[in-house]
């Protein structure tokens, strides 16, 4: 396992870091909150066309970069540090699902548009049996669906004749009702998707394998975002501990503060190692991905919430205010902890993989 980034990954990290600083710093999220927009279309266009992030893991024959999942984890870590609002996670999971499916026709139809950033495709991954297929139509409800209100196409796993199949649903299909949901996490757009006898295109390939890979990829991607946000919390709080004075000393001089920051720094290093292992597994050891991604997600989600909590608490009274950024990370940590399965579900899935 390589913990040190390659030269290409370092270049990607530095490029994204500069881009975020110039085009999508954290104050931009507050502007989006005020405007009611789910994300900045101009920023998304540059992320896709200029940085190539939408097609980072998509093969070159479909218009992507074919860079692999280690590169994706680097990108998501940098974006997560500033809570950049975008549909990147949604289209990444959709692309991963299509690649795992192995349906060449569906790939040729959807992947080039995803890679260019011009087509928002999302995965409506719900609980088993949440959607049923019958006579070319789908019935059921899935929530939350990432960027469901902005997607032109939804990929929907559904039960058909006792087996799992994957379907593509156009946003303007009859009987499709998409309702934007209010989330405490202002950096993420989610929706409830209701299918009421909605016409859908059945896709070929191995749907169970594709759905399983999508769930593993979701763990990897979310862990990467959370690791970046955790790093930002640690940096923010450490800096504050140096300048906030109490009883004539910087608060960082007190053991109660130093120990919490030291614990957060240690937890970040361990979580970073787990994420790098999961990213390498996705690229080089796919048979180990389920366990590696599950370990990374379980570790990072819990440690990120602890770091975000410490950020609010160690900032004292100002940490609880709307004007300070601490609450943005805390709400993000709370929201993402339960996305695609709460900690209990993640541990159950991890145990099942280890016991297989």
Distance between the termini: 23 Å
Global morphology? globular
Task: Quickly give the structural class.
Answer: alpha+beta
DSSP helical segment count: 11
Mean pLDDT: 94
Named CATH topology of the largest domain: Butyryl-CoA Dehydrogenase, subunit A, domain 3
Element pattern in H and E: HHHHHHEEEEEEEEHEEHHHH
Beta strand count:
10
The tally of domains stands at 3
Rg calculated over all Cα atoms: 20 Å
Q: Which percent range describes the beta-strand content?
A: 15-25%
CATH class of the largest domain: Mainly Alpha
Strand order of the largest sheet: 1-4-5-8
Describe the biggest sheet?
4 strands, mixed
* Poorly predicted parts: none
CATH superfamily of the largest domain, called what? Butyryl-CoA Dehydrogenase, subunit A, domain 3
Query: Architecture of the largest domain, CATH level 2?
Result: Up-down Bundle
Helix content: 40-55%
Oligomer description: single chain
Q: Could you give the topology of this structure?
A:
Elements (H helix, E strand, L loop, with lengths): L6 H17 L2 H10 L5 H9 L19 H13 L6 H14 L2 H13 L4 E3 L7 E4 L2 E10 L6 E8 L2 E8 L5 E6 L8 E10 L1 E2 L4 H37 L1 E2 L2 E2 L4 H30 L4 H26 L11 H12 L5 H13 L1
Parallel strand pairs: 1-4
Antiparallel strand pairs: 2-3, 3-7, 4-5, 5-8, 6-7, 9-10
